[in-house]
Amino acid sequence: MLFSEILGLDFIKNHLTKSALSGRIPHAQLFIGPEGCGTLAMAIAYAQFVLCRNLETENFGGNDSCNLKFQSLTHPDLHFVYPNVTNEDIKTKPKSSDFVMDWREFVLQNPYGSLFDWYKHLGVQNKQGEIRVDDAQDILKSLALKSYEGGYKVMIVWMADKMNIAASNKLLKLLEEPPEKTLFILISENEEDIIQTIRSRCQVLHFGALPETIISKALIDRHQIDPATASKIAHQAQGNYNKALQILNNETDDLPFEKWFVDWVRAAFKAKGNAAAIQDLISWSEEIATLGREGQKQFLNYCIVMFRQALLFNYQTNNLVYVEPTVEKFTWDKFAPFVNGNNINAIFSELSDAIYHIERNGNAKIILTDLSIKLTRLIHKN
Q: In terms of Cα–Cα distance, which of 320, 310, 318, 319 is closest to 340?
């Protein structure tokens, strides 16, 4: 992975290359950015720049065999840790090294892929992954060895916020007393979910969402689509290149999500003053509960987006509305008036609380039913 292959982010590229060329490489760095902005791709490109000593023009004057190893992510001084779960092959105590072949295939297919995409790649999207103490123990073993090529050893921890407490504590000790010539790159979408003691020992780099022009140009150059279509997809992707690729390939989960969302708000409207309609909300909650926890979180985040879009439409900022409803007889002009400044904060708060409790293994049916009853009250608030 080369810096030239990464979309946008020129400021961060320049910062990383200049610090490497000057010999000022922090032993621990934390890359924070939203899905689809390129944090993982940037980490790999930075690791290649450092390990392959590409210290002239990128990928020239460096070690050709080293660069070749990076094309298959098999460089012996490059290590990865990422969330993992049990599956049909790994019944107990899973760790990242058990899935190394799947990981390489996943990243080489799309380095902009999301955590949910990774779970789908493993066929375990109904489970919540975690980075456990066994992974942290593997980190200790890997970095205790000398580097194969006499330079740095790089450890990339993808979705570091998924480390459990035991793994975080073990990694913290290593960050406090790192081995010589060791580079840690932690990646996360949620900085606040990483314990403060680890954050305080890392140099933090914040990544922003990609500009629409960058995504549009990439779609035209890499996928040969017409500029009008590329511009429309880039607008819908909202800075997320992974989302743009899903829209392009018709792989987005938004189609069933949209139907579930519309069914939900319609049932909430009917339920006011109609006790019999509560059964529709209970049935809806039972259906969504079958998705598995990651699917439930994905859907509730989608609901947050839909309510935000309705609010923007209601306040006549149509240029910021990028979702085009496809469900029959559901339009923004009919729905948006019910989403306003008096209820939007409470709606967002209830959805966020539901995501929080689902992530912590609360009973999904109870959480979703409670959320539905609260929505019934909030959506009718003047």
A: 310
> Among residues of the chain, what percentage have pLDDT more than 90?
34
Distance CA 372, CA 284 (A): 9
Q: What is the Cα–Cα distance from 365 to 382, expressed in whole angstroms?
A: 28
- Residue 9 has phi, psi (to 5 degrees) of 55, 35
* Residue 107 one-letter amino acid: V
The C-alpha atoms of residue 72 and residue 105 are separated, in whole angstroms, by 9
- Integer Cα distance of 259 and 50 in angstroms: 48
Of 284, 287, 260, 281, residue with least CA distance to 377: 281
Tokens (6 digits) for 229: 């279509």
Place of tokens 């003691």: 197
The Cα 63–Cα 50 span in angstroms is: 11
Residue tagged 């909300």 (tokens):
281
Q: C-alpha 63: how far from its chain's center?
A: 32
Q: Tell me the per-residue pLDDT of 359-372, one tens digit each, with 9 for 90 and over.
A: 888 899 999 999 99
DSSP bridge pairs for 130: 84
pLDDT at 44: 94
As a three-state string, the secondary structure of 54-95 is CCCCCCCCCCHHHHHHHHCCCCCCEEEECCECCCCCCCCCCC
The pTM assigned to this predicted structure is 0.82
Q: Please name the amino acid found at residue 251.
A: E
What is the phi/psi pair of residue 150, to 5°?
75, 5
Token pair in block for residue 177: 């007393």
